[in-house]
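Subject: Sanity check before I submit

Could someone independently write out the structure tokens for this chain? I want to compare against mine line by line before I put it in a report. The sequence has 320 residues.
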Amino acid sequence: MLPLPDSVSRSSLLACGYSDASLRRLRQSDPSVRLRRGRYLAPPAPTLTPELRHVVRAVEIGQSLRSGGVISHTSAALLHGLPMIGAPPERIDVTWPGSPGRRPTHNVRPRRAQVHDDEITSIRGVHVTSVARTVYDLARSRDVRRRDALGVADAALHENLCTLDDLTQTLRANAGRPGCGRARNIISFADPRAESIGESLTRALFGSIGMPEPELQVEVDDAREPGFARVDFLFFEQDTVAEFDGKVKFERYLRPGETPAQAAYREKVREDRIRDCGLQVVRFVWRDLADPVATTRRLTEAFVRSGCAHWQPGPPRFLP
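---
Independent answer below. Compare away.
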């Protein structure tokens, strides 16, 4: 667990020689130094990513929670180290067993739900929903896109932070709550073999447009070398490979001392060997995930080239 930067109270800064005017100038030059009213990053304030700043603020607010409040939803996911799409919200998600009368503040977005004792854990000294309960809450939440919730579920399983049994038990323990059906669809579609948020979103797209269910992380053999390539997705019956190429993935597989041009050439050689095995190859990048029509067309054309001329999309397996 990475160490968090220290925080300090306004009164402590005043005692160290700061004035309200200097603190005001500090906030104007860098608004991120103030975590919440009366609490600041200890000077010299480090530069934080939006995700880490959200974690620091969640810990700050979590330490002052009363009446059974527990950090939840997106804030809990970030505390657990789970990936999220887009910038984190400014407010910290907090769930109380009863929140009528609680209104959103500059710091807190209140949620109302019963959280069982075995669905609460402690991170950095604050109460946080467990990984399984966090996945469930995001999966049933209307303000989180289904595909983004699937990415969190896949990551939790891939990193062994929870199991499918944990998610199933959480569904069962919270049956009948609003959004439970939506959560069931997302959790039933989750797969620990997805290795990145990009692969999860690609899976969601395939499922929503009626593609056949691919196998994940399949090794491809040729006469020279068994398992020379491991591919993201393989549609067995259609003899088609699909790969998601994100920038992070490309950098992860860059070998020591290798230039991007050398890596691109190596990847071209790898793809040619896959094609020599009689497989079609279709690559996707981030912008493709927003175009289901083009994705359907590209995959259908690959299936036709492989000999499945009469293939047609089926009903969606994942609700968009």
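---
OP: Matches mine. For the report I'm noting this point. The CA atoms of residues 279 and 314 lie 22 Å apart.
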